[in-house]
Amino acid sequence: MLGFVGKIACVNLTDGTVEVRPTPVKEAGKFIGGSGLAARLLYHDLKPEVGPLEEGSPVAIFAGPVTGTAVPSSSRFVVCGRSPLTGFWGESTSGGKFGVVLKRAGFDGLIITGKARELVYLLVENGKVEIKPAFNLKGRDTYGTQEELKKVHGTEASVACIGTAGENLVPIASVINDNGRAAGRMGFGAALGSKNLKAIVAAGRGEIPVASTQALQELARGLNALYKKTTLLTNQFGTLGYLDIGYYFGDVPVKYFTRGIFPIDRMNARRFREEYAVHARACWGCPIGCGRELKFKGRVVDGPEYETAVSFGPLLENFDLDTIVEANHLANCHGFDTISAGVTLGFLMYLKEQNMLPAGLKEEVPAFGDREGILEALKQTAENRGIGRLIGQGVTRTAKELGVSQGYAAAVRGLEIPMHEPRASVGQALSYATGPRGACHQRGDFFQVDLGLLKDGDLHIRGGDRTNLQGRVEAVVNLQCLRELDNCLLKCNFAFTPLKVVVDALKAVTGYPWTPENTLQAAKNSLAVKRMISFNLGSSSADDRLPDHFRKALGEGGAYGIVPDIEKYLPEFYRLQGWNEDGTVPRELVSRLIADDKN
Amino acid sequence: MIKIKVTYASVLMREPEEVELTSGTLGELKEIAAQKLGSVAVCFASGGNLLTDPGLKLAENQEVFIFPLVAGG
What we know:
Number of helices of chain B: 1
CATH architecture of chain B: Roll
CATH class of chain B: Alpha Beta
Largest sheet of chain A: 6 strands, mixed
Mean pLDDT of chain A: 96
CATH class of the largest domain in chain A: Alpha Beta
Low-confidence stretches of chain B: none
Radius of gyration of chain A: 22 Å
Oligomer: heterodimer
Radius of gyration of chain B: 12 Å
Strand order of the largest sheet of chain A: 2-1-6-3-4-5
CATH topology of the largest domain in chain A: Aldehyde Ferredoxin Oxidoreductase,  A, domain 1
Order of helices and strands of chain B: EEHEEE
Shape of chain B: globular
Number of domains of chain A: 3
Structural class of chain A: alpha+beta
Low-confidence stretches of chain A: none
Number of domains of chain B: 1
Largest sheet of chain B: 5 strands, mixed
Number of strands of chain A: 17
CATH architecture of the largest domain in chain A: 4-Layer Sandwich
Largest interface: A-B, 45 and 22 residues
CATH superfamily of chain B: Beta-grasp domain
Shape of chain A: globular
């Protein structure tokens, strides 16, 4: 099967060995690649008795079969393994160009185990992997680390690295690459930190083989034109352009998910553009250019995208743009997830307001809207001290430590609910509850279906009554599968692509006889294996739910009066995914998927 | 002939306005919006609900929100 460069490097940092294995392309027929293939390869090695920060816990960093090909918006890579944040299956993707250069350096993926004695980095270059000392990078922020390593390995190299949060083993630490691009969620920065691995440098100019260059180029021309047309305003305004659209529908969480309105005139895409000199930045080979760079206090910084702007904005009742930009820069520099940080800080603010915090802690936690308090709390998060220690461990563990009911913790399977209010779209709520890594807006962004923004007629994905899923559970399942494909191909999900075009792209790249049926089944295979891994690590169908915090209707805004009753849709969801009535994955399916260990 | 109140998503860079409709249908509003906004594909909502049926009759003074596809991730 083409699209792969044919090698995976297994790096053991404890004994300093690197074993190069052939990419098991036979498995790609079942899982396509990317996070699906990684899940399959890690299946037996993710064990409940091995904690995510222990030496024996592997971390996989994979590109996908379309990564680095002419397929537009396909520069992504995924970091996966046992999540330091949730303890279950974890995966986090990022753009930039690291995934492309990893393949050009000769590898489809890396599987990293063990722990180096001192801080090190990996140099992946022209088919070889070397372990190099990084003691001079200790304590450096992510921008400084990238700059330093590019001085050594050239500006064409791409660097994925951790900041101080990762070094300090903060469970919400990110992996940052290509300036401020982030594999933000699930805490894999801490996983790399636990291995004393500061960075991975990829460098190389190798070819990526594809089955049909001509078919791919024709397809790419069409897709480039389509994406340019459908994402014109995303290019002009970035994802912040969604702010007032989401607001209209009550999709923007406010004051730790307790309110539905805020002064939208003070905080929208136009205001950001008026306030700062902004220009667009694109990942490798992407016509969309959703990234922002802006001038802030005399320097150029990566601008906040929608999720971050809301996490550090309305969610905390903060409408000061400077504070949001600075908070985003802090998170990028130190390398931690903005969604998890914002939600956990919001949770603490909520408890403070409700008089539910222990006396000593109450003084330390800022009130909603306290701009200076927000920035100080985030600085403490990177350093793993003060209330930052609580923020850094995420909302689920913080609730447990404080003895507060998990019903108040805005998370599913330990992953904080992102900035799309589940009460604004019942389909989104069901997607959150059943997502392969917990509450995730990228593995089932059904809010966009309900707004009429995403459609795939062949898969019955179309807009409808957002308060009711009657007759549309299939659409939720199919969208989750389409998004799973994005993470297996490693394609950006902002470039929404109907299934039949995904199949054409896969065929042109791999030469494998993909059809809509076997492609969709591969997505289901991938979801099934990830679910099995999480269940092996202690999760269960009982986790397919939203916290009680969301059982109370909002009294204002575009989600007024809606309480998603997702339990009634679960049986149909399980059936359509091919799972048992109780939500478990059929034993025979798992046996079939993981049966053949030899490739 | 009816008049409706139209507001636009901020990225469309248009101020709120009243729009006159002869037939009063969503389909007519879609045509007018296409003339004003060019090739930008947009959706329509009112009262927090998505409007899709071109034959839908709008009411006098009904408020309609027009918004484009913008990735919200």
